[in-house]
Write a structure and sequence with these properties.
Layout (H helix, E strand, L loop, with lengths): L7 E3 L7 E2 L11 E4 L1 H12 L4 H8 L3 H21 L2 E4 L4 E3 L10 H8 L20 E6 L17 E6 L4 E6 L10 H12 L3 E4 L4 H9 L3 E4 L5 H9 L4 E2 L10
């Protein structure tokens, strides 16, 4: 049985996650999936010019692993460009930490910042991506904190919106989307956005729901076989994995 990989630290999520050749219909294109950890390796080494040893430390991986990520990313990008395939950025076993690096556009500033400086490590006062939202939405089978988290996002029966500052929650009836032929994920995502929540805890998300939430700046975390109360506690303790892309197909 293969050993599970440790989660890799990444410093940003791209706003553009899909690239395709001009003049070719999407239905006719083969796709190449570039994972977020592969993109981060390229960003650090090729775009920002950070030395490999420091970049590997920042991502919390060994130098051989970092080298494999770079090679894999280069092969995928070459395959997409040379063979006219679409390139989709999603997935990867990652932890998001936006505090470590300024935006990619500040290339020269980044280089000056990193030149001759030690790489920040966890525990140095950095604020990680998880645990920051004051309001979080949890998909629920019955609308109670004692009930289990619904594995489905779009077709969940209830949405619990928990206010971490006030230690209270409200319940949104989402049952109208359970039998929807299409658009359930988008409507559920809109319910979350309207509630003011900035993080979602669920089992699985399809592509449409994920894109709507991502565009609104709502982070998505995965909880399975937990009650809503346990999911809230795990979120606050930083124990939930964050989704960086949809993990099921549409109409799931």
């Amino acid at each position: 049985m293969p050993r599970p990989t440790c989660r890799r630290n990444i410093g940003f999520l791209p706003h553009v996650t899909y690239f395709k050749p001009a003049g070719i219909r999407m239905g006719e294109l083969a796709e190449v999936i570039l994972q977020h950890d592969e993109l981060e390796a390229v960003r650090l080494k090729d775009h920002l010019g950070i030395p490999q040893e420091e970049a590997a430390k920042q991502m919390n991986v060994s130098q051989p692993t970092f080298h494999r990520l770079i090679l894999s990313a280069h092969e995928k990008m070459a395959d997409a460009v040379v063979n006219g395939k679409a390139l989709r950025i999603e997935g990867g076993n990652v932890t998001i930490d936006n505090s470590q690096i300024p935006p990619c556009g500040w290339r020269q500033m980044c280089r000056r910042r990193w030149k001759g400086r030690a790489v920040p490590q966890k525990g140095d006062g950095l604020v990680t991506g998880q645990g920051g939202a004051m309001k979080i939405a949890i998909t629920s089978v019955d609308g109670t904190l004692e009930g289990v988290v619904d594995e489905r996002f779009g077709r969940s029966r209830k949405l619990i919106v928990y206010d971490r500052e006030k230690k209270e929650h409200t319940v949104i009836d989402n049952a109208i989307n359970m039998g929807a032929a299409q658009g359930a994920g988008i409507q559920s995502a809109q319910n979350v956005i309207n509630s003011g929540a900035k993080a979602v805890v669920s089992g699985h998300l399809g592509p449409n729901a994920f894109r709507v939430l991502q565009a609104a700046g709502v982070d998505v975390y995965v909880a399975s076989n937990m009650t809503a109360a346990q999911a809230i506690q795990a979120y606050e303790q930083g124990k939930l994995a964050q989704l960086t892309g949809p993990d099921v197909s549409g109409h799931w």
